[in-house]
Structures are given as C-alpha cells and as structure tokens.
C-alpha cells in the first residue's frame, strides 16, 4: 500500500468549506491559517499537510519540505495506531471466541 | 415474517411501512446479550478494519469510480415511466374505492405496500431512483399551471421532516394496510396536499424541498449503483456516492436523514413487549393512547437528533478541528442513509417475496376476490439474510464516513479520531436495533 497525496485527493478536500461560516475558531485559540484558501488549523503540521493535499501546484520549496516532514511524522504515528487497532481486533476476536466457547 | 406478510396470511393485516418490525424476528439459539454484543462487536471491528485503509488515493479511487451510461432512449423511457406511474395511481383510487374490501386480494393495498413501498423502494437503492420519473403527483403537477410564489428559503426542508413523521405515525396507528377504502382516502388526501403545494410554489421547489416521499426516494437513490449527474446517468459503486460533499445541505436536511433512521426504529419498537410494559402504567394512569404514539414519535426523534448533534460536538473536540459543527453534521449525515437502507432491505425483502404472487394475481384481475391467494413460503434460513443486511448497511456507513473524514481532514489520524463518537453511537444503535429484531412481535398495544 502506498500513501500518496494526489491531486484528486486535494481538489475535493476543501470544496465543502469555501464559505466563511464553515469555520468556528475559539477567540483564545491559536490558528494556523492557509494562505491559499483561508482555512484555519489548530496545528502547524496539519496546515503543512493541508497545503500539500489541497494546493500541491502552488507551493514553494519550504512548504514542500514542510509537507514532506509532516507526512513522515504522520506515517510514524499511523503505524503506532495500526498496532493498537490490531491489538483491539485481536482482543475482540478472541474475547468473543472464548465467550462462545463458554456459553 | 413481517407486518403484512404473516398477518395478511392469517387475515388481520396491520400496516408497517417502517423497517424494523419483524425483519428477522425468530427465536435465537444464543443468549440475547451475546447476540447483541456480537452485532456491536462486528460494527466496532469493521471500524478498526476500515482504519487500516489509510491510502488517500485508494479511497478517492473507490469513491470516484464510475462511467457514464449513454442515454438516447431516456426520453421514451421517461414518458413510459410517467404513464406507468399515472396508471398505478389511478388503479389505487379505482380499486381502492370500488374493489374488494379484503386486504389480501385488493390491488390498491398490494400495489402500495408490496409493489411500491417494498418493491420500488428496494429497486431504488439496488438499481436507481425510478420514483423521480414514476412519481404520478409530479407528472400531474407538471400539467397544472402554477402560481409560482417563491418558496420560503427559511422553511427549507422542515415540512418534509414533519411530513415524514406524520406519514409514519399514520402508518403505524391506523389500519392503512387493512382497509382499501381508508388507504385510497389517505392517498387522495396526500394528492390534494401535494398538488396544492406544487400549485402555489411550483413543482420544482415543492418536490425538491417540501415533499417527504420524493426526498426519501432521492436519498435511497443516492445509495444505488445508477445515479444522475450533470452528464446524465452514471454507473458507480453502491453507497459510494453518499460521501459526496453537499449531498446533505443545512440542519433541516440533517434532521431529515436522522428522522429517516428514527422512524425505522420506532416502527419496530412499538410492537415489542417492552413498549407495551412501559406504556401500560401510563395508559392506566389516564394518558390517552392516541396522544401517546405521536408524543413518543416526537420525543424519540428529538432524542435521536440530540444524540447525533452531541456526537458531532464530541467529534469536533476529538479531532481538534476549526470546522464548524454544522459542516461536520452535514458531512457525516449521509452515511446514516446506508444504515436505513440496510434495515429497509432486511424488513421488506421477505415481505416482498412472500406477497409478490398475490400482487401478480391482483394485477391480472383487479376486481376478482378469490378465496385464496398464492404466497411464497420462505425457507428457515431466510432470517439470516435480514440480519446480514442490517450489518452490511452499517459496514457501508462506516466506510462512507471513513472516506468523508479523509476528505475533510488533512491528517489521517485526525480523520480516524473524528469517527470515535460516531462509531460509539453506531455500536449502541446496532445493539438496540438487533434487540428490537430479536423481540417477539406483539399487537400494537392500547389501540
């Protein structure tokens, strides 16, 4: 399985959120706002990912570098999550198996 | 097997147009709590499995797959469809008012419940939305002139939400599947209301916003492999069109989808022994039963909507996003349609198969009143089909919500996290529904 950020993924990413009422930023929160479409994010890495997914053809070198870094970080946390999810699946499966054996 | 199916065979049909009643009601060989936990676990495990698919391009490809269907024959087909729809409506009126009074042989009853609400609705999500063309009320409204008053934008789709609740209430508490005359009168009332609305506001606005039936079929049709886009008919994978942005637009349309799900539950819930036991003290204390049913319908709907909005709020916190709650509510509502489809299929496939021969006999000779009508005996294992389709509806919903979350959030873990509250609600909902399905069906109490 390859994880690629394609243009098709990007084009639809922000279509449902093109009007101002779509966002609701708390007054005291820090927001990283996309310079291309104005969508605010709570984390800088999310903004970097968003730029790469939604505006891949407009980025400068620094932004591309930021996207790559954020993407690598994301991969790492995803593999941790996959392990946890697998653990939960195994628990559910064997849990039910044992209950069925007992009942 | 279900509402009319079994009861019609014994002669006392009761209307059940919703979805849960009876779908797979049969005795279980495992304890109920284990049955419920297994269903809940299946839904939870499916979410975990879906979360392994983290390739954005792959998800996009599945949801965008499709090809156009050439449509030179479309006009002729459309005209034929309109004529069939009009003929069906005429048959409901003529045979409903003048035909045999026996629910098992009357064409109007069989045409509305077996042909239309079971059969046509099933083809709507399995093939494509033919009601958009067949709808005789729309054809008639198109022939009439219109006052063309502007449809109030503020009102939106709320009349459709109210209309759906009223229709289901009528269907549950009145013998609509029992008395052809009553059914024809209700259809006539609906026709007058619909044509008046179309006359005042124009058919396009009326059927796009206010008509509940048109909207139910439109949402069911979004599940179907054949759909309509700017370039005409298009083939796609079943259910995948539900992740499209702006399919549900505004709080009124969110409410409609939630109402669609709630009425399927309500319809089954009121025939469980638990409902009877719960309401008996209330009725004994003097609560009029005719008030009980609409009030329960309203409270349940408010409860469902409240839980959905709460899940949206939790989802917003968990994913730490600045998207407004309204955006999330609209984007994650369409997957619920897949769940409603699963329940409809669970209930009505058996119903349709049992009574389809009766419908064929009635179609051949509408005014004959034979002493016996043919029905199909369903095999033992058929209940498993119903349970499978309930679970399958949930699986499609999980996948569609997964895709919508990927579309919405830049970070993939954020997208997965946004689904936790919805999955929790869905697990609970599955267990509730399976519980209803596993309960013995009792006659509607107090009425």
TrEMBL record, chain A:
Keywords, alphabetical: Membrane, Transmembrane, Transmembrane helix
Record field: transmembrane: 83-102
Domain of life per record: Archaea
The C2H2-type domain, residue ranges: 32-60
Coiled coil residues, start to end: none
InterPro entries per UniProt: DUF7410 (IPR055833), Znf_C2H2_type (IPR013087)
Residue span of region Disordered: 1-22
One Pfam family cited in the UniProt record for this chain: DUF7410
Protein name: C2H2-type zinc finger protein
